[in-house]
Automatic annotation (TrEMBL):
<keyword id="KW-0378">Hydrolase</keyword>
<keyword id="KW-0333">Golgi apparatus</keyword>
<keyword id="KW-0256">Endoplasmic reticulum</keyword>
<dbReference type="GO" id="GO:0000139">
    <property type="term" value="C:Golgi membrane"/>
</dbReference>
<feature type="transmembrane region" description="Helical">
    <location>
        <begin position="153"/>
        <end position="173"/>
    </location>
</feature>
<dbReference type="Pfam" id="PF20434">
    <property type="entry name" value="BD-FAE"/>
</dbReference>
<feature type="compositionally biased region" description="Basic and acidic residues">
    <location>
        <begin position="31"/>
        <end position="45"/>
    </location>
</feature>
<dbReference type="InterPro" id="IPR049492">
    <property type="entry name" value="BD-FAE-like_dom"/>
</dbReference>
<dbReference type="GO" id="GO:0005789">
    <property type="term" value="C:endoplasmic reticulum membrane"/>
</dbReference>
<feature type="domain" description="BD-FAE-like">
    <location>
        <begin position="191"/>
        <end position="400"/>
    </location>
</feature>
<dbReference type="InterPro" id="IPR050300">
    <property type="entry name" value="GDXG_lipolytic_enzyme"/>
</dbReference>
<feature type="region of interest" description="Disordered">
    <location>
        <begin position="1"/>
        <end position="63"/>
    </location>
</feature>
<protein>
    <recommendedName>
        <fullName>protein-S-isoprenylcysteine alpha-carbonyl methylesterase</fullName>
        <ecNumber>3.1.1.n2</ecNumber>
    </recommendedName>
</protein>
<comment type="similarity">
    <text>Belongs to the AB hydrolase superfamily. Isoprenylcysteine methylesterase family.</text>
</comment>
<keyword id="KW-1133">Transmembrane helix</keyword>
<dbReference type="InterPro" id="IPR029058">
    <property type="entry name" value="AB_hydrolase_fold"/>
</dbReference>
<keyword id="KW-0812">Transmembrane</keyword>
Length: 476
């Protein structure tokens, strides 16, 4: 016989163990949403905006300003709930691992790390970054071009060091950051969450894939962006992935896709809105995330291919300083120090360059009709970017538009590869890229947009003279 108290306790335990996180279903096919773009009159001077999307509806908002509204595409979904959750046994193992890293994440106010834990994590991450630097040194070899760029990188990091220290302190000790949440079984299948302090209602979510030349990428590189957006009511998930030589491009794309699946299927658990999930990538991360989108597009257009998440769950894609046609970039990278032999090793050989070039793949006669399945695409790029020329974003946006997709290329006059991502945010206040991201993410929520606009201005992290000098010596 079991006493009533023990029986009740047993039932409670069974209830807790049997609970599974419920993912919101993807929006129904055929539903229409709207993505707002700022008007030319609102755009700051010095920035060129190139719209390549067809059939834009201009809506007068009652004043002199005219706001462009781009309707979302109706996208068929091959989303498979069983594939998303996996088998019961597999999910049980995954669920237990995730909970160990995320129990304290369910409440923004709870959790945090002790000083000892923070120091331990700092030491662990410092060791990882050191390994990445040594790995880069090993693969690039010793040469004049590389030595000069390495010295420039050291001086560049020194100039921005005051900002790095402050961002690092926030990353390791803020209660709004939940680090190293497990999303998969492979090494470095982890992500960091940046949560807003205000938890009144579901928040939009940005799944961010960081850059790093496919060799030194790391989730912490997105901490400045995560801090900026979370302060304005947006949850940011920075997805880590295996780098070369631990993995080649195929595994990187697979890791990123798994991370996106985790965000899509668990957003509500962390206070996110499953109907407002955005995908973003920077530099190599923009390339990887674009590859994920195109690969998913091909799968969803095919027959009988189930996926763990659906393109219809992604409200829009933001690519920052990305390269989307490797056939045009392989020689350019060689002149910049990412030698051809190394780059081809990362990309699984010259024969795979086409496969991992999103701009080329969408033009394939067998898949080009599936381009309307893609979410609206916004590609941001600086015109003074010498690491990846801005023409890469322009051509990809043009190609998507010609094939029936919704795409735009936003050019920032005189901005380099790192200006938009590092130097500008360290100046404090609201920078151009941040304004453009927030205007798109909060476009259908005027109240949230007004609140974000009225948020306190971020303080300067680095003196202006050091930022200008950093831009001049940057090896990127």
């Amino acid at each position: 016989m079991i006493a009533n108290g023990d029986s009740d306790l047993g039932r409670k335990r069974m209830s807790r163990q049997s609970l599974l996180p419920v993912s919101a279903p993807p929006p129904a096919a055929g539903s229409e949403e709207k993505l707002g773009f700022r008007s030319d009159g609102d755009r700051p001077a010095g920035k060129t905006r190139i719209m390549t999307s067809p059939s834009l509806d201009l809506v007068d908002d009652g004043g002199d300003r005219r706001t462009e509204k781009v309707p979302f595409l109706s996208r068929a979904s091959s989303f498979n709930a069983d594939a998303a959750l996996g088998s019961p046994n597999h999910f049980g193992k995954q669920h237990r691992r995730r909970r160990s890293g995320s129990d304290s994440s369910l409440s923004v106010a709870s959790g945090g790390y002790s000083f000892g834990e923070g120091v331990g994590m700092t030491a662990s991450d410092t060791y990882l970054v050191t390994r990445l630097a040594i790995k880069l040194l090993t693969y690039l070899g010793i040469g004049y071009r590389w030595i000069t760029r390495f010295l420039a990188l050291g001086f560049y990091a020194f100039l921005l060091f005051p900002g790095f220290v402050q961002v690092g302190y926030y990353y390791f000790f803020s209660r709004q950051v939940r680090r190293s949440i497990v999303y998969g079984d492979q090494p470095r299948n982890r992500l960091d969450l940046y949560l807003p302090k205000n938890s009144n209602g579901p928040k939009p979510v940005v799944a961010f894939v960081t850059g790093g030349a496919w060799i030194i990428g790391y989730k912490a590189w997105g901490s400045l962006l995560g801090q900026q957006l979370s302060e304005r009511g947006i949850i940011v998930a920075c997805i880590d992935y295996r780098n070369f030589p631990q993995a080649t491009i195929g595994e990187m794309v697979k890791d990123a896709s798994q991370g996106i699946a985790f965000v899509c299927n668990n957003a509500a658990e962390y206070g996110g809105d499953p109907n407002r999930i955005y995908l973003m990538g920077q530099s190599a991360g923009a390339h990887i995330s674009a590859c994920v989108l195109v690969d998913h597009m091909i799968k969803e257009a095919g027959e009988g291919q189930s996926t763990s998440w659906s393109l219809s769950q992604i409200k829009a894609y933001f690519g920052l300083s990305g390269g989307y046609n490797l056939l045009h970039l392989v020689d350019h990278f060689d002149t910049r120090g990412l030698y051809r032999s190394l780059f081809l090793s990362i990309m699984e050989g010259e024969e795979s360059l086409r496969k991992y070039s999103p701009e080329v793949m969408v033009q394939d006669p067998y898949v080009r009709n599936a381009v309307p399945l893609l979410p609206p695409v916004s590609l941001f790029h600086g015109t003074a970017d010498y690491s990846i020329p801005c023409e890469s974003s322009k051509k990809f946006a043009d190609t998507l538009s010609e094939l029936g997709g919704k795409a735009e290329a936003v050019m920032y006059e005189g901005k380099t590869h790192t200006d938009l991502f590092l130097q500008d945010p360290m100046r404090g206040g609201m920078d151009e890229l941040l304004e453009d991201l927030i205007s798109r993410i909060h476009c259908d929520n005027p109240e949230a947009l007004a609140e974000a606009s009225n948020a306190h201005k971020r303080r300067r992290l680095v003196p202006e003279c050091m930022l200008k000098l950093a831009t001049k010596v940057s090896p990127f």
